[in-house]
Amino acid sequence: MDCFVGCGLLAMTKITLNLTPHPMPNLAVVLGSFHKKEVSEMLEEVQKAAAEQGWTITAEAWVPGSIEKPLALKRLLMRADVDAVAVLGIIERGQTKHGLVMAEVVYEAIIQLSLEFMKPVGLGILGPEIDPEQIPPRVRPYARAAALAAMHPVANGEMM
C-alpha cells in the first residue's frame, strides 16, 4: 500500500507499507501481583474480551507492582508477535502521596513506550488513591475497557 506523508503540499513523501497482518491479532497483558486476587479477576475479563473480539493472548507478564510495569511492557512491545498490550493493576490509597507520584511516573512511561513502539496500550490501572471499597465494582469494567482500548486501533486498521 502506498501512502503519502508530510507537512504541506511541497513536503509530500511516498512510503510503501507492508500490510501483512497476523492471522489473528495478538494481545499481551502486563499484570501487577500486589493485588493478585483482584488482578486475576481483571485478567479473566481481558481474556473474555479478547476472545469476543477474535484476538489471541500471546503473553502475560506478572510483575510485583506498578513501578515494574514499564520494563515488562517494553519487553512485550519489542516482540513482533505482540500487536497491542493491556496493562492492569491497582494503586491503592496509602498514608502518603507515594501512590500519586508512582502513578504519574508509571503512566508517563507507559504512554512514552506506546509512542516509541507505535503500538497501542490500554491502561487498566485502578487508582491512584483508590479506596479498598472502590476496587471491587471497578475491577472488571476497567480491565475490559483497557483491553478494548488496546485492541481498537489495530482492529480498525489505525495502526497501518
Care to describe what's here?
It contains four helices and six strands. Helix 1 (36-53) runs parallel beside helix 4 and helix 2 (69-77) packs parallel to helix 3. The strands form two sheets. The chain has a four-stranded parallel beta sheet, sandwiched between helices. A two-stranded antiparallel ribbon has the order 1-2. The protein has a single domain, classed as 3-Layer(aba) Sandwich (Rossmann fold). It is of the alpha/beta class and 160 residues long. The protein is globular. The chain is 40% helix and 26% strand.
Major sheet strand order:
4-3-5-6
- Class per helix and strand makeup: alpha/beta
Number of strands: 6
Low-confidence stretches: 1-20
**Radius of gyration using CA atoms only:** 17 Å
How much of the polypeptide forms β-strand, as a percent range?
Answer: 25-35%
Shape: globular
CATH architecture field: 3-Layer(aba) Sandwich
* Number of structural units classed as domains: 1
The CATH class is identified as Alpha Beta
Secondary-structure element string: EEEHEHEHEH
Give the CATH topology: Rossmann fold
